[in-house]
Specification:
heterodimer; A: mainly beta; six-stranded mixed sheet; five-stranded antiparallel sheet; 11 strands; B: mainly beta; four-stranded antiparallel sheet; about 0% helix; globular
Chain lengths: ~110, ~110
């Protein structure tokens, strides 16, 4: 039973447009969410995070939105650049989980020039 | 600069052999983790450690073991490799304290079990 789901395995976006990556979760105990980005043959790198006490967190071109009632979060990339092409993983944790992360299956983003 | 390294980067072995994957971090982080990445499953937690002499089982720990004798290293051992353990393995570390569980990942080891 996947507690963190990324239902879109892939997404293609034109350069300069907005990319929206989605993530749903089922465990209501999750109170901290993270996005990681992964290039081929490299390890995942931390991108942005959000605490459940917030509904939005912004860092440059990247914004994460959290809708707790819907158990849904999304990552917005504006404007998208070809270098953003990577696999994006959503992850979640909660304070009682001893800092373990539960990952989604990932979404391959391709930004077309 | 602090970093986390894994070795080897690629390994081919035969069914039944014992294999050890190394993970070394210079962040001085107390927490270390091992994941495997498989298509359609994302990253799944194998084992984790919150300090020297501490080890815990994760979601997919069967067939794997770890030991933590110092802060820097958490080697992952496959006691008797099986074809189902063909995967890409990632090691990660994080600092202690607080809910901000940002983990920093190594570059991965691609393991093939024939």
């Amino acid at each position: 039973d996947q507690q963190v789901k990324q239902n879109s395995p892939s997404l293609s976006v034109q350069e300069g447009r907005i990319s929206i990556l989605n993530c749903d979760y089922t465990n209501s105990m999750f109170d901290y969410f993270l996005w990681y980005k992964k290039y081929p043959a490299e390890g995942p790198t931390f991108l942005i995070s959000i605490s459940s006490i917030k509904d939005k967190n912004e860092d440059g071109r990247f914004t994460v939105f959290l809708n707790k009632s819907a158990k849904h979060l999304s990552l917005h990339i504006v404007p998208s650049q070809p270098g953003d092409s990577a696999v994006y993983f959503c992850a979640a944790t909660y304070s009682g989980s001893a800092r373990q992360l539960t990952f989604g299956s990932g979404t391959q983003l391709t930004v077309l020039p | 600069d602090a970093e986390i390294t894994q070795s080897p980067r690629h390994k081919i072995t035969e069914t039944g052999r014992q294999v050890t994957l190394a993970c070394h971090q210079t962040w001085n982080h107390n927490n270390m983790f091992w994941y495997r990445q498989d298509l359609g499953h994302g990253l799944r937690l194998i084992h984790y450690s919150y300090g020297v002499q501490d080890t815990n089982k994760g979601e997919v720990s069967d067939g794997y073991s770890v030991s933590r004798s110092n802060t820097e290293d958490l080697p992952l051992t496959l006691e008797s490799a099986a074809s189902s353990q063909t995967s890409v393995y990632f090691c990660a570390s994080s600092a202690s304290g607080g809910p901000a569980s940002t983990q920093y990942f190594g570059p991965g080891t691609r393991l093939t079990v024939l």
